Amino acid sequence: MHITSGKWILQHQLVPQIDPFSFNTADKLWVDHEWLAQCLMALADQWGGLFGLRVMMASLFGLTIALEARFLIKRTPPIYTILLLVLCIFSMASHLLVRPHVFTWPIIVLWFSVLFDVVEGRRKLPYWLALLMIPWANLHGSFILGLALTPFFFLQAYCAAPKDERTKLILPWALFILLSGLLSLLTPYGLSGLKFGTDLINSEYISWIVEWAPTSGPQMQPMLFWVLLILGLSLIGGLRISVTRFILFAGLLYEATQHVRYVSIFGLLAPLIFASAIGAFYYARQARAGSESSLDHAFEKLSKSMHWRSWLIGLALLLLITKVADSTVISATPPVSAPMKALQLAQKHDVQGKVLNFYNFGGFLISQGIPVFIDGRADLYGNKAVNDYFSLIYSSDVEFISKSLAQNNIAWTIFPPNQKIVLFLDTQQNWKRIYEDDVAVVHQRVR
What we know:
Blueprint: H1 2-12, H2 35-73, H3 78-92, H4 101-119, H5 133-139, H6 143-160, H7 166-183, H8 191-201, H9 221-235, H10 243-258, H11 263-289, H12 294-302, H13 308-328, H14 340-348, E1 354-357, H15 362-367, H16 378-393, H17 398-407, E2 410-415, H18 420-426, E3 431-436, E4 441-445
């Protein structure tokens, strides 16, 4: 859906206000808050197809880790930097997807690393940082995170400053926060774009969406390792952080347990929160020992800046590997999210009219030019439409399902075989199963 939307924007030279991809969104304003990321994804797709998109996302991920490492290496010894980066990457791994949020990862690290530099006295508050809000607000809705958490940094700077200097901090920080808020409005939607984020977080439908579901199972592991690390260092008296940093960590941890999509944000910011404290613990221990261990010494030597020739050689090798991968790696959308065979068979049967589709199939159908009943843009459809949809496909009330299908003039359906509504359609005389495989089942209404 993102690629198709990006192509539509580039073709029409227009950011849509009204949704062109669904028959079920009449008169609804579409706040396409990820329009810039969608255009970049469309350009990458035109350049190199799915492989081009993978290269783009891998590059953004590499840049993110490089910025994270640059921040950490200034505060912690290399071996601790590696440990924190491993935990960071572990937290982000399940969210490394071809999705707009990856574009904001480098911005998030840069934004908060600069603010940590400021509160630690390493630099003055730079007003240029507020300019990052312009691309951030046009790439993804997570810009609200930057606006929401920045006051915590002011609070930390205020509490850490001598009492006679605290009043001097109020004006520059107030101007920075105000400027950031104003620049975040420089989107095609203005205040509607800012309101979008708050409405999304408070929406009823997010309980239905997997990425907004509470974190559980293996996805809890990154947070578990972080908690164990913090508890371990605290028990041996090696970790001292400010109250504001603890509140920031606790808030991020809470959000990460409440919503799966926040696990990656937690993984990005947790190393920044604790880097200085962990570094101080290490150097204090080293001072007591009176010497540096051979392992630490070896990693210190490896952490020295490379010569420009080494950078060129590394870049050349990277380009060579990318070229080889382009000719050997098969890049294809998994059938579980792109049931192409089912759609092709449905088109051979000349299915026409409105489709009731599986939520996760919406983006694929949009990419094939088929107006959908629903797709991943739950914010567009709204609470009632999303709740009605899930109530319909999970219902056991035969009369309710039949009435809903008739009222919406549904002519055909496409769902995975394990969905409850598939069983209902199999038992109805006016519905015929015309295709099935392990990925999707297609039913057509019998006239």
